[in-house]
Specification:
The chain is α/β, with parallel strands linked by helices and about 450 residues long. Helices cover about 50% and strands about 5% of the residues.
């Protein structure tokens, strides 16, 4: 079985195929971008040219050439090539293809199996390939837009080499668009091609589609600024609310705020807003930034984040978006401290590394006379009976007495907090620590 067993015999039908399909590269030399894996001397290129492929996963955003690369492999490899769609196929079809591949191997030929959108197969379907990959019946080539670490099961992933394809840069897209202009026999100012390339956002298929639409709308075969304005209304941003790019962008926003880069924070926030992200999700992440990265350096940060949440909920879209921007700016420019975050982590670690000692007797309530007789509450020092309400009483269990979890930074208001904390800790040094048997 071959990808090329049934060529189109009607040239008129072929000519009506989408531009992106008509201009699909025929060889590695025609392939745009991906020099990091397909440049001269790169391992993947050598493996393709020498017909020494092992199973591999092609991972990248839409329109960067995953299917085209598989097609080129079909043209250069000496193995039978079988395209397979994870959208249209199930276990039954998998078993049929694998049976044919096993027969082919016994006849001395290999089968290259290309699986488009492999992430759409569930674990059981992916597992069905394993025995045949292990026996060498097939060389599996999977294509996916999702992170293989999350979407491809570990057994199959361990038997494959992952190659990450990158979004095409505007120069690569402009080169492709020039070929498209020649194919469509239209005229277009290079500046307009550059605009299409930027709007395509690294997606060759999208760039071709825009050019083809512009050519169809052009008068006298000339693409004008007005023609382009009619077909381009809004840039398409790569952003899948359930996929990896969703987490990449929110990570960029969080780390921009943490780095006090207000401009970066605004940009990544705008990316999320433009892509239609749930505003409440953004607010929740801003609240987290306030408590995790600003903390006690500016205790008002969390107040601002909660106020932002209420404003966004009250105003809705688009008016509430300005509150998100204001909050992102406030958090970016606020002094930073993760001392409280670290302090909780240290306290949590202490609960795991130390025995769960009983609550010290002086911290226990004694609501009955018997409990008082048993020593409940004995030695308790009421803070309001002491100067500045500092009793110096130790409130940790005996095994952890004197432990200091919270270490303030020298940023924001924490220096003042540090002075107060030092005075409290100094007062505790003379406090009598009762034994657990008291």
């Amino acid at each position: 079985m071959s990808l090329f067993d049934t060529p189109d015999a009607n040239p008129d039908v072929s000519h009506k195929r989408p531009l992106a399909d008509r201009l699909r590269p025929k060889s590695l030399d025609d392939f745009a971008g991906q020099e990091h894996i397909l440049g001269a001397g790169k391992p993947l290129r050598r493996a393709i040219e020498n017909d020494q492929l092992s199973s591999l996963i092609l991972w990248g955003p839409p329109g960067v050439g995953k299917t085209s690369l598989a097609t080129i492999i079909a043209r250069t490899t000496k193995a039978d090539f079988v395209p397979f769609s994870a959208v249209l196929s199930g276990i039954k079809e998998i078993k049929e293809v694998m049976a044919r591949a096993e027969q082919t191997r016994r006849m001395g030929r290999r089968t290259v199996l290309f699986i488009d959108e492999i992430h759409r197969f569930n674990k059981a379907q992916q597992d069905a390939f394993l025995p045949y990959v292990e026996k060498g019946d097939v060389i599996l080539i999977g294509a996916t837009t999702e992170n293989p670490s999350f979407e491809v099961n570990s057994a199959l992933l361990s038997r494959s080499r992952v190659y990450a394809l990158r979004a095409l840069d505007p120069n690569d897209l402009a080169t492709l668009l020039n070929k498209g202009v020649a194919e469509l026999n239209v005229q277009c100012d290079p500046a307009y091609l550059e605009q299409i390339a930027i709007f395509a956002n690294g997606d060759a298929r999208s760039a071709y589609n825009l050019l083809e639409l512009a050519a169809a709308s052009a008068d006298s075969g000339v693409i004008t600024r007005e023609t382009l304005a009619e077909i381009i209304s809004r840039k398409s941003l790569l952003y899948d609310k359930g996929g990896e790019e969703h987490f990449n962008v929110i990570s960029a926003l969080h780390k921009s705020v943490r780095a006090s880069d207000a401009d970066g924070a605004l940009y990544w926030l705008a990316r999320m807003l433009e892509a239609g992200e749930d505003r409440m999700y953004i607010v929740r992440r801003l609240v987290r930034m306030a408590v995790e990265d600003i903390g006690m350096a500016d205790p008002r940060a969390v107040e601002q984040a909660i106020a932002c949440m209420q404003t966004v909920h009250f105003l809705g879209i688009p008016e509430g978006d300005q509150a998100l921007a204001q909050c992102a700016l406030y958090l970016s420019l606020a002094p930073k401290s993760d001392a409280a975050y670290k302090a909780l982590g240290a306290a949590m670690a202490a609960t795991q590394s130390h025995a769960a000692e009983p609550v010290p007797m002086h911290l226990r309530n004694a609501p009955t006379k018997y409990m008082k007789q048993w020593g409940y509450g004995e030695g308790y020092r009421h803070a309001h009976e002491f100067t500045d309400a500092m009793s110096g009483m130790e409130c940790l269990p005996e095994g952890l007495a004197g432990t200091e979890f919270y270490q303030p930074t020298d940023r924001g208001v924490e220096p003042r907090i540090a002075e107060r904390l030092a005075a409290i800790r100094e007062a505790k040094k003379g406090f009598y620590k009762p034994t657990s048997g008291q």
